[in-house]
Amino acid sequence: MRKFILNSSIISSIIGGFSVVQTTRKGPRDWRLVLMWLSWGITLALAVGSVLQSDEDARELGR
């Protein structure tokens, strides 16, 4: 769990998610909002994937 919490890409993705939530609450609801949520979801998926990949690489080097 610590590998996710302390990773800078996860932290920046969470901050980006906070920004998207604020825009959703206060901004206009149009097609750009859907694209913002989609891009945030992709960013989060890439961040989690990179953490998992680096953990897998570290385990392979440890063998």
Question: Tags for this entry?
Answer:
63 residues, mainly alpha, transmembrane helix, transmembrane, membrane
**Got a strand count?**
0
Count of helical regions: 3
Low-confidence stretches: none
Helix content: over 70%
Strand percentage lies at under 5%
Order of helices and strands: HHH
Shape: elongated
Structural class: mainly alpha
Residue-averaged pLDDT: 90
Quaternary structure: single chain
Task: Give the termini distance in whole angstroms.
Answer: 22 Å
Largest sheet, in brief, is: none
Radius of gyration: 15 Å
Structure write-up:
The structure is a single chain. The protein is an all-alpha fold and 63 residues long. The protein has helices at 2-5, 8-26, 31-62. The longest helix is centred in the last third of the chain and has 32 residues, at 31-62. It is elongated. Keywords: Membrane, Transmembrane, Transmembrane helix. The chain crosses the membrane at residues 33-52.
